[in-house]
Amino acid sequence: MAAPTHVDTLIRNGTILTMDEGRRVFTDGFIAIKDGKVLEVGEDRLCEFTADEVISAEGQMVMPGFANAHNHLVQSCFRGYNDDRWPVLDIPTAVRALIQQLFLMAGAMDEERTYKIVRLHALEMLKLGYTATHDEHFTNVRKDSVDGSWRAIEESGMRGYLCRCIANSKSVPDEGHETSEAGLLEIERLGAKFKSDRITVAGGFLNFNFLADPEDMRRIRQGCDQLGVAFGVDMTDNSRGAALKARGFEGGQVEYYRSFDLLEEPIYAGKAVNVQPHEFDILKAHDCRVSPVPVLRFFDATGIPVDEFLKRDILPAIGTDAPLVSDSQNPFEVMRLMILAQNVNVKARVAAGGERPAREHWLTAEKCLEMATLGGARTLFMEDKCGSLEAGKAADLVMVDMRKVEAQPGYDGRRGPGALVWGGQTSMVDTVFVAGKKLVEGGRSTVWDEEQIVTEANDVLRDIAEETGLYEYLPTRTAGSEFRGWSYI
Length: 489
What we know:
With 489 residues, the protein is an alpha/beta fold. The protein folds into three domains: 5-64 and 387-445, Urease, subunit C, domain 1 (Roll), CATH 2.30.40.10; 66-379, Alpha-Beta Barrel (TIM Barrel); 450-488, no CATH class. The protein is 35% helix and 20% strand. The termini are far apart.
C-alpha cells in the first residue's frame, strides 16, 4: 500500500464552501494544501493525507477569502467622516467637500506616513476575512505616497489589484494635476516595483469628470496596453447623465467610454453607478468587471439593480469603498446591504410602473457569498488564481467559527450560509490564509504587532492633522468642549 501523500497543511472536519463550478459544499470536508495551493478538497472520510500541520475545522465554515473589490486604501484615515457631513443630500457636492479635505492631507502624506496609515487598513481587512483588495489611488500631490500604500499591502501578504489613477481636471486641486504622459511614467515605475504573483498593478482614472481633456481617456488606455498593465475606470456618474449632456453627449457613461475605445479589452469597471438599462448588455458584451458599493446607494436612495447583472450571467463583486464612505468594512454587513439595496431598487422600479425581477434573479445568501468571493476574484482579474477552493488554485481561504453565540441557533447546519450572511459578525472570523500562509490565527495577526500598528497610525494622523490644520474640520469632542448639546468634561 502506498504511503499517504504528505502536505504542508491539512484542514479537516469543516463545512467547506468550495465555490467551484458545481458549487459543492462538503458538510464534513477537508482541504489539503501544498506549496501554497489547494492540492485536494473533498469528503473527510476519504482523506488520505498527512501534514506538517493538521487543523481541526469542526464547527467552522471554510470558504474562499473575501475580496474587497472597490476601495481607496489611503482614505482609511477618514473613518467617522460620514457623521461630520450627514445628511448627504447631494452626492456631487459632498464629493467636492471631501476632495478639499483629502488633498489638504495628501501634501503631508509621504511614503513612510502613508505606509503606516494603510497598514492599519490592511490589518483590519485581514482580520475581517479579506484576502484581496482593490485600490484606486488618485491623490498624487506626493508621488511617493502610493509607494507607501502599496508597500503596506505587499507586506501584509494580501493580494491586490492596485490602480494608479491620473487626474488633471478642476475636480481636484492644481497640485494634484499631472499629464497623461507623466502619469503613465509613474504607472510604469510602479509596475516594475510592485508587480508580483500577488500584486496586479493597473492604470486608469476615476471617471470622465477627473480628466480635463476627454482624449486623455484614450491615451491612458493605449498607454496601459503598451505597458502591459491592467486598466480600470470607476464607472461613477453621480450626475445621472447631466455631466455628459454638458459635454454634448446624449448617451450613458458606458456608451461614452465605448466611444473612446476603452472597452476593446476587458476592464475593471468599478461601481457602475447609474448605468442606463440598455447599457447592461454593453457591459456584458465587453466583459466589463463591476463591483457595486451598496452603502452609497442608500445615500441617494437608488439601490442597486442586481437582477440586471444576474439575468445576463454577470457575477458582480462587492466593494466597501473607503472607510470615509462605509465606516464599517464588515463583509457580512456589506452582503446584507447588497440584498437590501436590490430591494430598494426594485421597489422604486415597481412604483414607477416597472416589473419585479424573476425569482431566480433576486439575491440569496448563497449568491451574495459567491459575489463576495468568486465574484470579487473575477472582477479583480484573479479568478485563475483564487476565488474558489479547488485543486490547483491558491489556498486563499477564511475559517469562520459557526459555534460562536452570534451564529446560534444552528439547527444542525440548516441555516448555514443564511445565518452567515444575514447575521454574521466579524468576531466569527478565526483564521485567514493567503497562498497557504496563515496571516490570521485565532482572530489575531500572525504578521504584525497589532498594537504597534494602531499606535503608529494614530501618531502619524495626529501629526498630519496638526500640520495641515485638519482639526478645524473635525468635531470638538474633547475635554472642556461642547458638541451637539453634549458636554465633554
